[in-house]
Write a structure and sequence with these properties.
This protein is α/β, with parallel strands linked by helices. It is built from 4 helices and 19 strands. Helices cover 22% and strands 29% of the residues. The radius of gyration is 16 Å and the shape is globular.
């Protein structure tokens, strides 16, 4: 298996691998262009750049720069997804985002993790767990979604929350760690 194949399948992999380093460099060049763009994402150069960055983009994407990700190709977006300023997606594993989902400023989605074993960490090994966000989800500003977490459709994640466990459909979660505070 290549290091990319190990990474995307959730196995330990070496992030310093030449192929992975080249992929991250490529997306950083595109992100620099995207983050320096002044035009609306719905047309023009920013829309073209999003098409080159993301693995899949739906219709009517709204993305306010700056935006950051590791690879981009592992991110799949539904229709009418909206990212406010400063969002980060560490996409060493698949990230799937459903339609009509909104991200407040500085939201962070993490698929990347590090082993508990210090020797494995010292040797530069990492792993990833996929993140899935349903449709019609609202994630408040500065929320963090941890590796392997799914957020159900119709749910709301309160600003500043740290989501460490799966969130069912149609609830409001908030806090650190996030917990259900209301059913919708």
């Amino acid at each position: 298996m290549t290091e990319y194949e190990k990474m995307i399948s959730g196995n330990l992999y070496n992030a310093a691998d030449k192929e992975l380093t080249k992929m991250r460099r490529h997306v950083r060049i595109l992100l620099t262009e995207l983050n320096n763009s002044l035009c609306d994402v719905k047309s023009g150069e920013r829309l073209k750049l999003c098409g080159k960055i993301f693995g899949k983009t739906g219709k009517n994407l709204i993305l306010q720069p700056p935006f950051y990700c590791d690879y981009g190709i592992n991110i799949e977006l539904g229709d009418n997804v909206s990212f406010n300023f400063g969002c980060v997606i560490l996409d060493v594993a698949k990230v799937r985002i459903g339609s009509f989902t909104m991200f407040g400023p500085n939201v962070q989605l993490y698929t990347a993790g590090h082993p508990l074993n210090r020797e494995e960490r010292k040797n530069g090994l990492e792993f990833g767990k996929p993140v899935e966000i349903g449709s019609n989800v609202w994630i408040g500003g500065s929320a963090v979604i941890c590796p392997g977490v799914s957020v159900g459709s119709g749910s709301i994640v309160g600003a500043g929350s740290v989501v460490t466990k799966d969130v069912p459909d149609d609830v409001v979660v908030a806090g650190n760690p996030a917990r259900i505070i209301k059913k919708l």
